[in-house]
Design brief:
Layout lengths: L8 E4 L1 H4 L14 E4 L7 H13 L3 E7 L6 H15 L3 E5 L13 H6 L2 H4 L4 E6 L14 H16 L3 E8 L3 H13 L6 E6 L2 E2 H10 L6 H8 L8 E2 L2 H13 L5 E7 L4 H10 L2 H4 L8
Parallel strand pairs: 1-2, 1-10, 2-3, 3-4, 4-5, 5-6, 6-7, 7-10
Antiparallel strand pairs: 8-9
Helix pairs in contact: 2-3, 8-9
Length: 291
């Protein structure tokens, strides 16, 4: 578990970050912190959060949701602000959870094709992964479009000098994730995978977020637990999920899940404490993580 948690990352939003006095009291030095950009959040709030986290010594990775970015000029403005005010050099590019694009961008590949991240010296670009598929992208329940997009992004990484990785939606069942990761490698998609993990939270909270985020078949893990009324008041923790992945990686060192990315659904403090108690603190190096 400690080896798998090495260099873990975590996600925050401006409104949740405001509740934390000092992230240095919670997270190991140089932890990568993603900043989720939810529709309606002013770019000023996003940049201010990035600046604050960078000043506390963390590697900041803001979201760039294609569907809420109006046009190329807006994208360039955001990149320039993050870089100029917070020294940001990395980003998570994704379509974004809105049904209709606000402008000319619909998916993350269009953001990559602008070349703006390269022009502004961004060194690391992450893209979204969906181990259980995504019905917004593949309404028929397959993963055909998702897979095509990952193949395109793999090719992009090979023809550019971008350092890339796949950051996934959170899941609750390890075996399907292992099969998905192995299938990607078999298909020639070798981008490192940062597996999404839901941090400890009340079971009701976990189910609410899982339904809202379109979590697939592994939602059954939560639903099964919910049938036991004695467990409804107990927090759901990712021990079993991560232990199974950790054991698999120990037995198969070439396994392409390389990092853990936490969604702190039960709160950043609860999540950070869980990660630290399970080996996350001692496993993180004293230099920024690059993988």
């Amino acid at each position: 578990m400690e080896a798998l948690l090495e260099g873990f990352s975590v996600e925050v939003m401006p409104r949740t970050a405001e509740k934390v006095d000092d992230f240095r009291a919670l997270l190991p030095q140089h932890t990568r912190v993603y900043i989720a950009h939810i529709e309606g959040t002013p770019i000023e709030d996003m940049v201010a959060t990035a600046k604050r986290l960078a000043s506390e010594g963390f590697a900041v990775m803001p979201h760039f949701p294609a569907r809420i970015i109006k046009d190329r000029a807006t994208l360039q403005d955001w990149i320039a602000r993050y870089q100029g005010e917070a020294g940001v050099e990395q980003a998570l590019l994704l379509a974004g959870g809105v049904a209709e694009p606000h402008g000319e961008f619909e998916h993350s590949m269009q953001l990559l094709e602008t070349g703006l991240f390269d022009e502004h010296g961004f060194k690391r670009l992450h893209v979204a992964g969906h181990p259980e598929g995504n019905k917004d992208i593949d309404p028929d329940g397959s993963d055909a479009n998702v897979s095509d997009a990952l193949r395109w992004k793999q090719a992009f990484s090979e023809r550019t000098d971008a350092e890339m990785a796949i950051a996934t939606q959170f899941c609750f069942e390890a075996k399907p994730v292992i099969r998905w990761a192995d299938r990607l490698r078999e298909e020639g998609i070798t981008l490192p995978i940062h597996i999404g993990v839901a941090g400890p939270a009340k079971l009701q909270t976990m189910i609410k977020f899982a339904l809202a985020c379109g979590v697939g078949p592994s939602l059954q893990v939560l639903q099964k637990r919910a049938k036991d009324v004695t467990k409804l008041v107990m927090p759901f923790e990712p021990d079993d999920f991560l232990q199974e992945l950790a054991d698999h990686k120990a037995a198969h060192p070439e396994f392409n899940i390389e990092r853990v990315h936490f969604f702190p659904l039960g709160g950043i403090k609860t999540c950070a404490t869980w990660a630290r108690d399970h080996g996350g603190a001692s496993a993180v190096p004293a230099v920024p993580v690059e993988a």
